[in-house]
Amino acid sequence: MSWRTFIDSPAVGDHGVQVYDGVEDLAHGVGRFLQAGFVADAPAIVIATADHRQAIEGELRARGLDPIGLEEGGLLICRDAAETLASFMDGELPSPERFESVVGGLVDEVSAQFPDATIHAFGEMVDILWGRGEAEASLALEQLWNELARTRRFALLCGYQLDIFDVSVQTEALPAVFHVHTHAQPASDAARLSTAVDHALTDVVGPIETARIYLDVAENVPRNSIPRAQAVLSWLSEKNTALAANVLDRAREHYSAA
Questions:
Q1: Alpha-carbon distance values, 167 to 84, 100, 119, 172, 241 (Å)
Q2: Region for residue 91 given its phi and psi (left: phi exceeds 0; alpha: psi -120 to 50; beta: otherwise)
Q3: Which of 144, 172, 200 is the last residue of a domain?
Q4: Does 180 reside within a domain?
Q5: Does residue 122 share a domain with residue 89?
Q6: How far is the C-alpha of 37 from the C-alpha of 121, rounded, in Å?
Q7: How far apart are the C-alpha atoms of 74 and 58, rounded to whole Å?
Q8: Which domain holds residue 224?
Q9: What tens digit of pLDDT does each residue of 174-230 get?
């Protein structure tokens, strides 16, 4: 399933991650995801920081939706990410029992009002943990969401603020984050990323070596929901970190310029 299909018509249990740089990019993706649910008379749960919630509400208004009216009608349920996270943490890790009670209970309340609908949920508690340097806790929380999805009707979108043009993010963060999701969007504009990576490779290694790299990736990296440009960056970062760092620097320039 493509990212577009996930955003516009996710299936029960789908779990996508949007990697973003600016809040505007995040709000755009979340707004589209929530709107798709509202069009289908499906409710939404948003667990976000205060400033990101404000940006998301602004995006909804830009799409002709009324956040206040949606909340009053029970279609939009918002919770503060930091407060919700604190309610189920047990030391350095999330408590499965508390998570089931707090988040599972919230999902159950919404499902009781819309029993046949697939809830569109957005959460960034995992990003709060990751930003604190608590990667283990963040990934454990992702797994708790996946376990919850086995018994509830919802699709989940997560947001991570990461610099995909940093080689350490490519080698350490993204593989772990992508592994616990069914769908991934490493940049807000996948087409622009593809063009930037293509130009960067040509700049750094020339067209013949660029063609060989694409061929190697096609032969060795299975097709999945991750955009091909990201697959190239992942493969190159694993095989040749120094070369990947140069390509990423150039790709950042091309992506920003576009």
A1: 32, 36, 35, 8, 7
A2: left
A3: 172
A4: no
A5: yes
A6: 10
A7: 19
A8: 191-257
A9: 999 999 999 999 998 989 999 999 999 999 999 999 999 999 999 988 877 788 999
